[in-house]
Write a structure and sequence with these properties.
With about 325 residues, this protein is mainly alpha-helical. It has 13 helices and six strands. The chain has a three-stranded antiparallel β-sheet. Strands 4-5-6 form a three-stranded antiparallel β-sheet, with no helix packed on it. The structure holds heme C (2 copies).
């Protein structure tokens, strides 16, 4: 009786494992070619290119991930390093590399059409039809900003830099076949024009769709990126592949009077803090870029963060030295 039951369980398990393996294997090369292309065409208008430069270099941390990994020190010091890609993310599902965004025809975006870059940013579908890894959570970029970003990327000098292919381990393959199988598109229809001028709306746009403050300042799963804590309530255990000796805790940035940073900062103090740039050496927050955000935009970010529900959550000190603890 017992043996028979065990045998049945064994067979069921075998079938499940075999079925799962086939399922996972069959879903490693999914393509989403039918996803529409947004109508993006690069402009050479200097105002459009300048807006693109501002988004790419100052507000959206593109260079934090796509900047030349060999020029990390220059980037941290505030230089506009070439966006040659190759930065490695060594995370539980595997090792992943950012792409070369310069116009080099062979190794960069030179032969990728404007509309395909637009589709990658907005719908999470790569130029080759793959669902992109969910690293770029800027699907909400407005039509005019998307065009500005592509326009700026086209003005860079082409740099030849071959980026290694991604490596998904067994766990990564399962995640790829399930949680990451579908491309991530925008939650709501992105605006045609980005909101400008000091307002909560401008702040919401920058925080949610461009500067991605929530992405670091919210506790998330290291495996899937799903949020596991309250929005803007801060996070712990944020380690960077460039410095595994430190564990960062992006603080709670809500207006909770006791545990939220914005509970203790006036609007002027918030702007002044951003102008100071990085104060804690090695902090992964792209302070050198954010210190250049315009006054109106910083004030808008403050107004928006003040408008979100306060969260009571203390994440401890901003950085822990892993060697000592
Ligand atoms: C948090 C890190 C991160 C940030 C910030 C980031 N990227 Fe990426 N980007 C990646 C990774 C990782 C990939 C590779 C994704 C893949 O192949 O699945 C990628 C891929 C791309 C691609 C290639 C898509 C394709 O067709 O293969 C483009 C274009 C791109 N990024 C543009 C940008 C721009 C423009 C910005 C800033 C507005 C930006 N990225 C910000 C990590 C990032
Ligand atoms: C790449 C991750 C990352 C992003 C993106 C990010 N932060 Fe941070 N932030 C951190 C970390 C880590 C700290 C703690 C270390 C430090 O103070 O530099 C921090 C600290 C802060 C502090 C406290 C600074 C102080 O001295 O008291 C504020 C305020 C803040 N972030 C606001 C923001 C806002 C607003 C945005 C979006 C415009 C943002 N952060 C985007 C990671 C990030």
């Amino acid at each position: 009786m017992m043996r028979k039951a065990l045998l049945t369980v064994g067979i069921v398990l075998l079938v499940v494992v075999a079925g799962g393996t086939v399922f996972v294997a069959s879903r490693q090369n999914l393509r989403f070619d039918a996803t529409p292309y947004p109508g993006v065409t690069a402009s050479t208008d200097s105002a459009v290119v300048e807006r693109g430069r501002y988004i790419v270099r100052d507000v959206a941390p593109c260079a934090a991930c796509h900047g030349d990994p060999k020029q990390r020190a220059a980037y941290v010091a505030g230089a506009d390093v070439p966006l040659v890609g190759g930065f490695e993310f060594a995370i539980p599902p595997g090792e992943f590399y950012t792409r070369n965004l310069t116009p080099d025809a062979e190794t960069g975006l030179g032969s990728v059409p404007d509309s395909a870059i637009g589709r990658a940013m907005r719908y999470g579908v790569g130029h080759d039809g793959r669902a992109l890894l969910p690293f770029m959570e800027m699907q909400g970029l407005s039509d005019d900003d998307l065009r500005a970003v592509v326009s700026y990327l086209r003005t860079q000098a082409p740099v030849r830099n071959v980026v290694p292919p991604h490596h998904f381990n067994v766990l990564g393959k399962v995640v790829k076949a399930t949680a990451m199988a579908k491309p991530v598109g925008p939650a709501t229809t992105p605006p045609a024009r980005a909101p400008r001028g000091k307002s909560v709306e401008t702040g919401r746009y920058l925080v949610e769709s461009v500067a991605l403050c929530w992405a670091c300042h919210t506790q998330r799963s290291q495996m899937t990126g799903a949020m596991t804590g309250p929005r803007f309530g801060g996070a712990t255990g944020f380690t960077e592949s460039t410095d595994p000796t430190h564990s960062w805790s992006p603080p709670n940035i809500t207006s909770d009077p006791e545990t939220g940073r914005l509970g203790k900062m006036t609007e002027d103090q918030f702007v002044a803090r951003f102008r100071q740039g990085r104060l804690i050496p090695g902090s992964p927050m792209p302070w050198q870029a954010f210190s250049r955000i315009s006054e109106d935009d910083l004030r808008s970010i403050y107004l928006y963060l003040k408008s979100v529900p306060p969260v009571k959550r203390d994440n401890g000190p901003p950085v822990v030295d892993v060697k000592k603890s």
